[in-house]
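I'll show a record.
***
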Amino acid sequence: MSSGPASRIGDRFRTAGDALRTQLWPLPVLAVLVAIGLGVWLPLLDAAIGEDMPSAVSSLLINGGPDAGRAILEATAGSLITATSLTFSLTVVTLQLASSQFSPRLLRTFTGDRVVHATLALFLGTFAYALTVLRTVRSGDDGEEAFVPHLAVTLAFLLAIASVIGLVFFLAHLAREIRVETIMRKVHGETAATIDRVFPDRRGSASPALPVAPTSAALIVTAKSGFLTGIDEERILAAAAKHRAVVRVDCRVGSSLVKGVPVAVGWAHSDEPIMRAEALEEFRHDVAAAFTCGFERTAVQDVAFGFRQLIDVAAKALSPGINDPTTAIHVLGHTSALLCDLTQRDLGARALRDDDGVVRVILRRPDFAAFLNLTLDQPLLYGSSDPAVIDRVLSLLQEVAWHAVGEDKPAIREQLQRVAAAIQQESHPPAVQEHLQDQLDQVNQALDGAWSPHGPVAGGRA
């Protein structure tokens, strides 16, 4: 069944929101505009109230003369532009660290951090507000009446105090965000939310047979190069129904596309007349318009992107230059939880039907084996010589095997054979070899529905 219009509209808003969320400028620019407006309006309010200000309110305001007002506003503007420079510098250093130490794919996580956005917005907004109010302070030396907008100056003082507190919270937040545990938790949460959106259906009965494309099916090419970041299911279904055709999408969300290369095929439904030649180009255009292409992957519809981010961290941790197998082990813990969730989902190809129940669109989606291969290929390649990493890989297979249904178990057995071959190729001490063999047996038992307790690598610590 196709998802409803509300779900499709939600995907469009999420795609647009994700593009804005990962930019540093929108919220600070909005804050500057609001601050300028407030800096123009509040002095006017000050002037309109004049001597009618209630004494209870005026006693709480900064009531100095023009020189004092200017000093406060100038100090606020000068200190805030310095704090903003510091914030930008720390953010850039954090992005460099994330790119070199963890993975370039994680930069979106940092640039989308709301605390960074809010801190920059507070600093730049306060700076713009102080400068705007400063222009309204008059000393009376030029023959005009002296004027100090006490309400506006007091607000500038309060914003300066809030900015100091915000800087302290920003530094504490930054120290927490650059920890690899925090990064993995955020990617895990984002990937779990994407799984809920992309694979909302729980696994049920066997999937019905899907139409097979004839050899005469029309090829549909992509109009842009980049990554497939999303497929508008409602739009592609409408295009297929409009032309009384069936469309099979051969690329997955997250795939790399090259302009002019086929991404889908279409053909007339068996009970309907062959599509006329003059309508073929319109059909191709309507289908191609349902694909969203960008130059970087996003997590809106791309479940595999979350796995890619986590496994990149594990691969980097297992590199000789970093040599941090503990981080790789923690990554495998997160991916294990996600894989166990996927075993309960309806994965693989998905059919979209029109109002008459006719299959109009076949979407190619990754199955469980694809996610399992993505998770284990690189950890096995780079970490096969580390008993602790292999031990965690076997624990992952045991955990996933416990949740897996029958059709997923062959993929687990295939991975188990790869692990067994990797163990045999390494010259581990006999005690470690025996322990890993026991773990292999426990995975086989889990595949048969029996659970055995899992212990640390022999001779090691948990």
